[in-house]
Amino acid sequence: MPPTVAAAYLPDHPFAAEAAGPPPGRPVAAAAWAGVDTHPLSSPGGGGPPAEPGRVRFGWCAAGLLARFEFADAEVCTSASADNQLHYELGDTAEWFLKPADADHYWEFYATPHGHRTAMCWTGPDRSGDVPYEPLDGVRVASATTGDGWVSDLLVPAPLLCSRGDAWGPGSAWTTLAARYDHAAAGRPALSCFPRLPVADFHRTRDFAALTLQAASGERPGPASADPESPGSCVP
């Protein structure tokens, strides 16, 4: 059975303020994620642990959902040159999938070591038709290389999460997958993900982890509301 993971409430994360965040090429300080659980990425299927480990953390703030990827990488490489490209074909890529638990549609986001972004929304599990690129309004990425790899923070804005009528906030039901394409100058990329998948298919939505948002007050969250004035919902 897929695991359940918590998104920590991070009101002081730099992305919580509309105009905040580090300049290009500068990462969000690790202190912004102090005390937040880390989840190691694993090779899909029966493979052993990835040769270059990675981990992910999940959070949320008033602006939307947050993720932080931290990767060991001896050879950071990408030829990505713009947003809304198939970055996994071009080099190292962090991927984040978000799906309402009771819906067929789901979102797919990319971040590269140099801060390029991609957003897609698939309307069903078969990924049929053209690549469904989404506007990037509000999708934020802060990436940087480090001495032994690279890190990236992503924000998916609440209005995007609610754009198809889904509730968002403490008590809402979402699922998630974090994944990585680890490229090198030669050979095929190494794949890893959290949670571990039985096969190398990052669109296997039935195996996504359940994602719960911790209550901002520290109290047990109640059910999401359809009241647009309620912080537990942003249904238009």
From TrEMBL:
SUPFAM superfamilies membership: CBD9-like
Top-level taxon of origin: Bacteria
Positions of the UniProt region annotated as Disordered: 215-236
Record protein name field: Carbohydrate-binding domain-containing protein
Organism annotation: Phycisphaera mikurensis (strain NBRC 102666 / KCTC 22515 / FYK2301M01)
Taxonomic lineage: Bacteria, Pseudomonadati, Planctomycetota, Phycisphaerae, Phycisphaerales
